[in-house]
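Protocol step 4 of 5: obtain the predicted structure for the target chain.
Materials: sequence only (see below). No template structures provided, no constraints applied. The aim of this step is simply to have a reference model before the mutagenesis design in step 5. Sequence pasted as it appears in the construct record:
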Amino acid sequence: MTQEERWPALPFAEWKDTYATLHMWTQIVGKVRFALTPNINHYWGTTLYVTARGLTTSAIPYHAGIFEVRFDFIAHQLEIATSLGETRAFRLAPRTVADFYSEFTAALASLGIHANVWTMPVEVPRPVRFTLDQTHASYDSEYAHRFWRVLASIQSVFQEFRAGFIGKCSPVHFFWGSFDLAVTRFSGRRAPERPGADKITKEAYSHEVISVGWWPGDGEVIKDAAFYAYAAPEPAGFKEGAARPAKAFYSAQKNEFLLMYDDLRASPDPERDLMAFCESTYEAGANAAKWNRAELERGK
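Step 4 output (structure tokens):
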């Protein structure tokens, strides 16, 4: 596989409508997992995971066993499979969010799966209930495939980065609310409660964290796809850390280190430079916050 195939172009302006629609579809599927899966610390039990073909919920319990929902961005279909051997599938193609919601919930019901889902999207401006959303209806299969291809390439690097940490660490997982792939390390120490934080934010940041991730951008504050890294709470001196590679920078607007995806794609060795970004931003946060690195890192 060529570097262009591993790290394809993903300009926000070219796929923003597909992105917006796919964001709503993943929220619908993610909310089913959220409704039926026992709550795990920091809401880790609600996320999706990268697969060799797309994204999956992994196993979800229901009254007759377990089931799994998979987005396949090679065959471009949504698949539901149960431990009873039953399956349902339908094509991923241009269709409204309301239509997707209706067909998906009908497919679940035909398998005897019922979930009490809150139909209002989260973490998006001007949300419209899934059942009423006739606006988001785009699906460009080429860009959906590119999006998954990017996730698959990042997954490998993030997994290697995660393997170097023996303290508490999240899986490499995809957040359907914010639509980003991330992995988070923990110091093991409690963090002060954020003033005015909602229930989810309180739980997510109950302990000190250093997180690295990738996000497709928004066309505005971050115009195109970018890698990010932050420490929460942010320790004094973090922003002055020596982030690598050279194109990485600290954004005072986002309070994060950023590395634009297109800058990584232009590198002769994207995997090496992404690992350098992960390691250097972690070191900036762990050193500034005085984490016990000897106890938390493999081989330290």
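Step 4 remarks: The helical segments are 3-6, 12-36, 97-110, 141-163, 199-204, 261-265, 270-288, 293-296. The CA atoms of residues 33 and 295 lie 34 Å apart.
Proceed to step 5.
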